[in-house]
Design brief:
Length: about 400
């Protein structure tokens, strides 16, 4: 942490790195979410700075990264931008410089201290548990669902299996690998058509509606599968409903303590929200809050309560912390509510779903950071070492190590 003398007292600011970008199809969306958060974080409490992960995977810090224009044609050699890396070792607690040529700088080279990481990634290589695993290794608090929950939340196929195991209502679906589609397309088409049109075809591991297509006949189904297969090796085909209404609800909290948000009904000109609908229609880079939406959603109290209860149950099952958003579909023909998916790092951190409840964005950020520190403190209460006699037993076998055999029973 950094301290600043103010009068006779000492004001301590927490060093917050806001991480965004990464090697993901949702790279640009992530930039918007990260810069939004930096604009709204309480600067009297935190020394917050951007950490940009480029499409090539390089990590960068520097003041120019606060300006969205920097990313239109990103130049890693521009003045004020420094390439850094995070050592996967507990206790380092900071970002370190790189030598010319991209090699790790010997003998230190601390560039920015890091007390807590705010993860604003969307999609692969960030929201999927990979970055979470890195921060677990570094023993640095981070604002996101943990490794397991992030992995489940990223994979639509496994996610649906978990929801189904919880007894939650999910739409019928089938999945297959890209290699099978290439090998036996007719069999895949038969299985998909058996679900009944309309169908939604989705890459298993992408968010923001990228690669998702609606199929209403054989030709559109073939095209939808080709699109999804270009993004992922595993493809989900899901039965749609003829009269869908999308409802979203966020969850804010820490593991088994979840505060469900008000529900919203996103508006779209199409039957479902495309990537462009969600992020670019406003044209101002304002992220999710730029969309037309109805808050609260025009649904009755009983449906609202059921959705909020399911949100809390999912939050607990996936061991979530911070803020997530869960998307639901209501079949207007019969009123059935289906769980669609969880977004473990929702666009714009779903702050617009908590503002109507009196929680400002800056206060939401405070909670995210507080939960990150609380999770690390709880982690440190666990035992990480077990003193067995295994090595002593193996040592007694001495020569057994050379021969590949040991005398001690393991």
């Amino acid at each position: 942490m950094e301290s600043e003398k103010k009068g006779q007292g000492v004001m301590t600011k927490t060093n917050i790195g806001v991480f965004f970008g990464s090697r993901a199809a949702e790279h640009d969306v992530s930039i918007v979410s990260g810069l939004q958060l930096l604009e709204n974080i309480d600067k009297t409490k935190y020394d917050a700075y951007p950490v940009y992960v480029s499409r090539a995977g390089g990590w960068y810090v520097g003041d120019p990264l606060n300006d969205i224009k920097t990313y239109r044609r990103f130049d890693p050699s521009a003045r004020g931008i420094t390439e850094v890396y995070l050592p996967p070792v507990p206790g380092k607690r900071g970002l370190y410089g790189m030598d010319v040529g991209g090699f790790f700088k010997k003998g230190g080279g601390l560039v920015r201290s890091l007390d807590c990481a705010v993860l604003a990634f969307h999609g692969m290589h960030g929201e999927d548990g990979t970055m979470q695993g890195l921060f677990e290794l570094c023993d640095i608090p981070y604002t996101s669902v943990g490794v397991t929950g992030a992995g489940v939340g990223m994979d639509k196929i496994i996610m649906k299996a978990v929801f189904k195991s919880m007894g939650l209502p999910v739409l019928e679906s089938a999945y297959f690998y890209r290699s099978r589609w290439q090998r036996e397309p007719d069999a895949v088409l038969r299985e998909a058509k058996a679900l009944g049109y309309p169908l939604f075809v989705k890459p298993a591991n992408l968010g923001s509606s990228i690669g998702i297509s609606k199929a209403v006949d054989l030709d559109t189904l073939k095209n939808a599968i080709e699109v999804a297969a270009s993004y992922d090796r595993r493809i989900l085909v899901e039965r749609g409903v003829n009269s869908p209404r999308e409802i979203n609800c966020a969850g804010l909290g820490y593991y088994d303590r979840c505060l469900p948000s008000v529900c919203e009904q996103p508006a779209s000109m199409d039957a479902f929200l495309s990537f462009e609908d969600k992020y670019t229609r406003g044209g101002k880079g304002d992220g999710m809050q730029s969309l037309k939406r109805q808050i609260p959603a025009p649904i009755d109290e009983a449906t609202t309560k059921r959705i909020q209860d399911m949100t809390a149950d999912i939050f607990k099952m996936l061991e979530c912390k911070g803020v997530v958003r869960i998307d639901y579909i209501i079949d207007e023909d019969d009123g059935t509510v289906y769980v669609n998916e969880i977004n473990t790092i929702p666009g714009s951190f779903a702050f617009y779903l908590y503002e109507p409840m009196g929680i400002k964005y800056s206060a939401l950020i405070d909670k995210l950071i507080a939960y990150a520190f609380a999770a690390r403190e709880e982690k440190l209460q666990s035992v990480f070492a077990f003193d067995s006699e295994l090595l002593q037993k193996v040592a007694l076998g001495g020569a057994g190590l050379k021969s590949g055999k040991t005398t001690g029973k393991i």
